[in-house]
Structure formats: structure tokens, C-alpha cells
Design a protein that fits this description.
With about 500 residues, the chain is an alpha+beta fold. The protein has a single domain, classed as Outer membrane efflux proteins (OEP) (Up-down Bundle). About 60% of the residues lie in helices and about 15% in strands. It is built from 10 helices and 6 strands, in the order H-H-H-E-E-E-E-H-H-H-H-E-E-H-H-H. It has a 4-stranded antiparallel beta sheet with strand order 1-4-5-6, covered by helices on one side. The protein starts with a helix and ends in a 13-residue tail after the last helix. About 30% of the residues are buried. The C terminus is likely disordered.
Length: about 500
């Protein structure tokens, strides 16, 4: 037994010592063009907003509910969650390759055995009766590939990077769904607001047409003015019908995104205050440039570099020898005519070395391909960073511009409304023509429509900033959620954003 222990310890120490060898990989992290500061003006007038509570700061519970429902119903989020589970299983498999494998074996057989014996005289012989023999075998077999040049460790590192990348892409899918749902919700809200403007305009034009018809019948108004008023009313009615159709289309888009049936969704939307304006846009005092690295798509691209680096190490190690240690322990029992005979066996080895000699350049080509994929991953990562910087800059510009235009738009509507009221009073007194009234009405309607469009632009810019900043996702949160996510990652899809 001492000799057995000595041999086992010698083989183990040899394996551990040789496993310390590894080949050099290309850098798993590379530099990217992160900006030192933003060139676009930052939104002002408030404290730093928490990205994690982005939607809650708008104080709209229905929006938060719709986003959660959309995440739960999204096939993109569900498929991303499935890819997380797949990547986790691959990571476990790659890690297990570094450890010795142990298999149990068992067998049973029964046969006969006979022997021939010669007679006492001449060449005559006789065959003894066959004797049944039962053979029982059980044992353990172990095999361990000693990671001489780091191939298995590289495979494990690549699988781990791919698992984290899959988790980041799951978060990116959630951010995308939240942004799409918010845009659809704000579009529906803006559509309803524009619908109220169109309804008010149509009522006003219809009343003007009715009064002109009465006046024309009495002979106080020219038929041409009455016809113009009726045409104006019909024009407004057509716009109102078109606006109602647009709102119906927007609502159906929300139904498709959230998975909530249309009747229930209409009830939820109707429960909100009918005259509620679009949510007030919050403000942030600063946006750190490093926040770009928090974007899940940028982080996934960065992990793509790490995974490609590990793949290069694995491909390079394939060109070097492999060392495998095997061993077994077994017990065999023979049963013959009521007699039991047992044997115990053990082996350490063979310690086999496989050396690649000729492969027609296949392994080198595989290494070159891995290096090319690494260069591609680096380029994609840097391109992702540049695109992220651009998206943040554009969102900041649009948010600042729409904020600056808001006061002017409100002032324009207020003064155009005052002008229309004065013109309508003059028209009622016979001091203004119908043409003046209609011109003033068109100007007011255009100003009101422009203000609704501006409010819609502000919400789009706000959602774009949310999307460009990664939706409040963080690497630490991703790591903890990845480790705690159950075997069914879709269970966490409905988590509030």
C-alpha cells in the first residue's frame, strides 16, 4: 500500500507541476476611445437621476406596469434568457474538463468450461462434463487530462466570458423592450393629446359653419362664406377621423408589445387622468463618460474580446503535446460449483503522451483563424464604443434642444390662442372676415400641433438617452444576477426595470 500511495502522489505531483505551463494569449482587455467629457450640453436643473429608477421618476405607474408586462411577453427576452442557460451549461462543462473523470463499471456473465483428458491406453480420449462458471466484475475507472499548456483553462475562460456576455445580452434585450414599450406608450399619449386638439378644432369649425349657414339663410352672409365655413368644417372632420385611426393603431401596438388584451388595456388607459399631460422630463446634472462601459451591448462586446483571446490560447495549445493519466480499481469474483474465488486489481497508468506530428497545417490554420477572430472582436468592441458615444451625444443634443424649445412653444400657443379669441370676438361683431378667422384658427391649430409634437420629441429624446446609457444596467448587478439566476432565467424576465 505504501508503494501504491507513493506512485499516486508522484503522478499527482507530476501532473500538477506540468499543469503550471501555459502559453501566452493576446490581451483579454483592450483600450477603447472613451471620451474624457461630453461635447453636448447636459440637461440641467436637477440632481443626478438614478438610472435604475429611470421610469419610476416619471411618476407613471401604468408605464412601469406596461414595461414589466412587455418584458414578460417578449420573445426576444425569452430567447436571450434561454441563451443564458445554454451558456451556463457550457461553462460548467468546460470547467469539468479540468478535473479527473471517474466512471463506475459492473458486469456479470455466465458460461461453461470443459477440458479434455486422454485414456489410459491407446489414443482414446474422453471429454469431461462442462462446468458452469459465473463471473462478477465491478470497478472504478479514472482519467485525467493534465492541462500542460493551458488549453482546458483557456476553454473554461472562453466559456465563462461567453456566459457573462449572454447575460449582458439578456439585459440589453430587456432595455430594448423597455425603450420600445415606453416609446409606444408615449406615442399613444401624444396621439390622445393631439386627438383632443383635433376635436376642439373640429367643434369650433363646425360651430362656425352652423352659424354661417343660419346667417346665409337669413341673407346676412354671402353663400361663398358659408361654403368656405362648411369646407373648413369638413376638413377638420377628416383630420379628426384620421387622428382617431392613428390612435387606434398606436393602441394596438401597445397591445402587441405588452401582451395585455385590448379591452383591459383600454380600461387601464381610461383609468388614468384624461387631461394628464405627458410626463415631466427629469433632469440630470452629469453623465460620466465611463457610463458607456455600463451599456450591456458594450460590455458584451468587451467580453467578446476576452472570449476570443481565450480561444486563441486554446487553439495554440492544440499544437502542443497532451498528457493523460489513467487508473482503475476493480474486483472480480468467480463462482464455480459453489466455490467462490475473488481477485482485486488496481492500476495507475498508463501515463500517455500524445504528440502532434503531421496534420497538414490544420492546427496552425485553426490558430490563425482564432487570431483573426480576436482581431475582429477588438474592432467590433471599439466600433461599439464609438457608436455608443455617438448615441449618447445625439440624445443629449436632442434633449437639450427640445428643452430649450419648450418655453417658446408654450408662449406661441398662448399668444396664438389670445389672437384667435380676439379675432373670433371681432368676427362675431362683424369687424373681421371669415378669412381672417380661418387664418387665425389654422395658425392656432398648427401651434398646438407643433407643441404636441415637441412634447413627443422630448419623450423620444429621454427614451433615447435611457437606451444609450444602457438603461441603468451595471456590471456588478449583471454578475450577481447571473450567479443567482435559476435554471429557468425567464423567471426573472418580469423583474421591474
Amino acid at each position: 500500500m505504501r508503494r501504491l500511495r507513493l506512485k499516486l502522489m508522484t503522478a499527482l505531483c507530476l501532473g500538477i507541476g506540468l499543469a503550471g505551463c501555459s502559453l501566452t494569449r493576446p490581451p483579454a482587455q483592450v483600450e477603447a476611445p472613451f471620451p474624457a467629457q461630453w461635447h453636448a450640453p447636459l440637461p440641467h436643473g436637477g440632481s443626478l437621476a438614478s438610472l435604475a429608477d429611470w421610469w419610476r421618476q416619471l411618476d407613471d405607474p401604468l408605464l412601469v406596469e406596461l414595461i414589466a408586462a412587455a418584458e414578460a411577453a417578449s420573445p426576444n427576452v425569452a430567447s436571450a434568457a434561454a441563451r443564458v442557460a445554454e451558456a451556463r451549461s457550457t461553462r460548467v462543462q468546460a470547467g469539468a474538463a479540468l478535473l479527473p473523470s471517474l466512471d463506475g463499471t459492473a458486469s456479470a456473465s455466465r458460461g461453461t468450461s470443459g477440458f479434455a483428458s486422454s485414456g489410459g491406453s491407446g489414443n482414446s480420449s474422453s471429454l469431461s462434463a462442462s462446468t458452469p462458471i459465473t463471473t462478477l466484475q465491478a470497478g472504478l475507472q479514472s482519467k485525467w487530462e493534465i492541462d500542460l499548456f493551458g488549453r482546458l483553462r483557456a476553454d473554461r475562460d472562453a466559456a465563462e466570458a461567453k456566459q457573462n456576455s449572454a447575460n449582458a445580452k439578456w439585459h440589453d434585450a430587456r432595455v430594448a423592450v423597455a425603450a420600445e414599450t415606453a416609446n409606444a406608450y408615449f406615442a399613444e399619449r401624444a396621439c390622445q393629446q393631439q386627438l383632443r386638439v383635433s376635436e376642439s378644432d373640429a367643434r369650433s369649425r363646425s360651430e362656425t359653419a352652423r352659424l354661417n349657414d343660419l346667417s346665409a339663410r337669413a341673407g346676412f352672409t354671402a353663400p361663398a362664406d358659408a361654403a368656405l365655413a362648411r369646407a373648413s368644417a369638413s376638413d377638420a372632420s377628416g383630420r379628426l377621423t384620421q387622428q382617431r385611426a392613428q390612435c387606434a393603431v398606436q393602441r394596438k401596438a401597445l397591445v402587441a408589445l405588452s401582451g395585455i388584451d385590448e379591452t383591459t388595456l383600454e380600461q387601464k388607459l381610461a383609468a388614468a387622468p384624461a387631461q394628464r399631460a405627458l410626463p415631466a422630463i427629469g433632469s440630470i446634472a452629469s453623465v460620466p463618460a465611463e457610463a458607456i462601459s455600463q451599456r450591456p451591448d458594450v460590455y458584451a462586446a468587451e467580453l467578446g474580446v476576452a472570449s476570443a483571446s481565450a480561444d486563441v490560447g486554446s487553439a495554440e495549445a492544440e499544437r502542443y503535446p497532451k498528457l493523460t493519466l489513467s487508473g482503475s480499481i476493480g474486483r472480480t469474483q468467480y463462482r464455480v460449483s459453489g466455490v467462490h474465488q475473488s481477485l482485486e486489481t488496481w492500476t495507475v497508468g498508463p501515463l500517455s503522451l500524445t504528440v502532434p506530428l503531421l496534420d497538414g497545417g490544420a492546427r496552425k490554420a485553426n490558430t490563425d483563424a482564432a487570431k483573426a477572430r480576436y482581431a475582429e472582436a477588438v474592432s467590433l468592441y471599439r466600433a461599439n464604443v464609438r457608436q455608443a458615444v455617438r448615441e449618447v451625444e445625439e440624445a443629449l443634443v436632442n434633449l437639450d434642444a427640445t428643452d430649450a424649445r419648450t418655453t417658446d412653444a408654450d408662449t406661441a400657443v398662448k399668444n396664438y390662442q389670445a389672437s384667435f379669441d380676439a379675432t373670433q370676438a371681432r368676427y362675431s361683431s362683424g369687424l373681421a372676415s371669415l378669412f381672417e378667422l380661418e387664418d387665425s384658427r389654422r395658425t392656432l391649430f398648427s401651434a398646438q400641433t407643433a407643441r404636441v409634437s415637441l412634447q413627443r420629441e422630448r419623450t423620444e429624446a429621454w427614451v433615447a438617452l435611457y437606451r444609450s446609457m444602457g438603461g441603468g444596467w451595471g456590471r456588478s448587478a449583471s454578475t450577481s444576477e447571473s450567479s443567482s439566476m435559476t435554471s429557468n432565467p425567464a423567471a426573472k424576465v418580469a423583474t421591474s426595470p
